Every structure is written in C-alpha cells, then in structure tokens.
DNA sequence: CTTTTATGTAACCTACTAGTTACATGATGA
DNA sequence: TCATCATGTAACTAGTAGGTTACATAAAAG
C-alpha cells in the first residue's frame, strides 16, 4: 500500500523541524490559510509554500481552494502507515535484539558481541 | 531524551531507500564489515561509507574496529524513541481525527469539513 | 619485508534544497 | 470599476547531498 518512493517522501518531509512544526500548527488549526500559517514563521511566505509543497507531496497535508484562500488540513494516513510498518516489521523484531547491542551504543566496548558471518565479499 | 536535531538526523537517515536497506542488511548480519556491506550495492564503497556516516550520525548504526575491519551493528533505540513519541504524541490524537479528514485526501471534495479558526494574521 | 586487503581521507562534480525578490493572477470589498 | 489582499509563479543564489576517482594508512598473510 505504501511503496519505497512514498516512504522517502514522508521521511524527507518529516526530516525538517519547521515542517514538523507546520504539521503541528495545521493539526491544531484545521482550515488555516497559507498566509496565516506563514505568519508563524520567520522565513518568507514563499519558503513556507515550498515546505507545504513537500508536505502535500508526501500527502501529509491536503488542501482545498475556498474563494481566494487555500485551506490546509492535516492527513495522518501516511504516518499511520509507517507507524504500522514499524510496529509489525521493525520494532517488534528489533526491540528483542536491542539489549544485545545497546551497551555498544552507550559506551563503545572493545569486545565484539557476535562473530557470525562477515564473509561474502 | 531526543531533541529536534536528533529527530532531524534520524528522519534524514531513514529518508533514503538505500540507507533503509543498509539497516536491514546490518540488522540481518550483525558484525558485517564495510566492504561486505558495500558489495550488496551498485554504488561505490565510498558512497556506502558516506551513507554509513549518516546512519552513525543518527545513531542507527554503531561500529567497532576489530583488527583491520570495522564491524557494524544496528541500534534500534532512535527508532524506538520516535515510535514511542508517535504513539503517545501523534498517532493517538491524530488517529482520532483521521475520519474527519480522510475523505479529503481520497477525493478532494468541494465542501469544507470545518470552518473553525483561520483568523490570526 | 613486501604484498595484499580493508578501511579511511581528499578533492572534485552535479543535482537538489531552501531560501530570496520581483512579478502575476484572481477573488473581495468599497 | 478599482484597489486590495491571498495566493501562485519565475528566476536566481548559496549551501548541502550524493556520487565519483585517486591516494593514504594500517593490519594480515606470504
């Protein structure tokens, strides 16, 4: 239902703090216009519109023209999908393997936790 | 525990299909070396190393030198954190509001679902 | 010691991102 | 109609991402 290209777009969109903040604002004020949204940011209205394009590309925001204003709405579907994929594919499995690895992340030890494969090249 | 800058790094890292694939491979073959990993990709070993830098920057991969090889390990902690944040902050709230909005995403209607605020600027 | 192998660093190129200013369009209100 | 206001488009710039080739280092094997 969600291919890799779509996932790229969603992660890409979420990778910038300002865009996450836009999502929060649109979520809190559904139907907000472009200009009103832009007023909350330091950058120009055009910059905000470009961010909006990225978010619409990722389908995280949908909009509809209403007179001379464009109303913005948040769409949680893509996040739900990634959330679901993480829950099923990633988190469940990975969480089980975390304890074996996490000490490495916290303070790089010298002893390898596992010597398995490593051939192949 | 995870600030916005860290989140940027994780989303940025996950935004590219090749890096997600690297994560999958390292997850399946813990302790794999850089060269062995690079052999699974079309691009050069140096390109793969740069991707690895991004993943280590995001703390999604940790590594340790072992002789002349560097062993790579997957670290699920950042994903767990985002997963938790989504579960608590985002998904729970957003999921409740999805039904009101989703028809807009599926087939742009002409009627606004909500006329609320929209003032502010 | 010399050669090979695994990894790392440097310098460079191209494409894309994120921002800008200036101008265009199109609906509203007087 | 005409001025105004909200939004959209065009063209440009600076910086970063993602890729390359060439060279450097350091451990293992002979």
UniProtKB/TrEMBL annotation, chains A, B:
InterPro entries associated with the record: ArsR-like_HTH, HTH_ArsR_DNA-bd_dom, WH-like_DNA-bd_sf, WH_DNA-bd_sf
Q: Which CDD domains match?
A: HTH_ARSR
What domain of life is recorded for the organism? Bacteria
Q: Sorted alphabetically, which PROSITE patterns does this protein's record hold?
A: HTH_ARSR_2
One GO MF annotation is:
DNA-binding transcription factor activity
Q: Residues in domain HTH arsR-type?
A: 1-94
One Pfam family, please name it: HTH_20
* PANTHER family assigned to the protein according to its UniProt record, in alphabetical order: TRANSCRIPTIONAL REGULATORY PROTEIN
Q: State the name under which the record lists this protein.
A: Transcriptional regulator
Which species is the source of this protein? Hyphococcus luteus
């Amino acid at each position: 239902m969600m291919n890799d290209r779509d996932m790229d777009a969603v992660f890409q969109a979420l990778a910038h703090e300002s865009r996450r903040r836009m999502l929060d604002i649109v979520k809190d004020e559904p139907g907000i216009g472009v200009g009103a949204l832009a007023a909350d940011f330091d950058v120009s209205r055009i910059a905000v519109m470009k961010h909006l394009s990225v978010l619409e590309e990722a389908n995280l925001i949908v909009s509809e023209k209403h007179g001379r204003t464009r109303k913005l709405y948040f769409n949680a579907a893509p996040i739900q999908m990634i959330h679901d994929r993480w829950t099923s594919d990633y988190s469940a499995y990975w969480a089980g393997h975390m304890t074996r690895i996490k000490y490495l992340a916290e303070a790089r030890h010298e002893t390898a936790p596992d010597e398995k494969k490593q051939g192949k090249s």
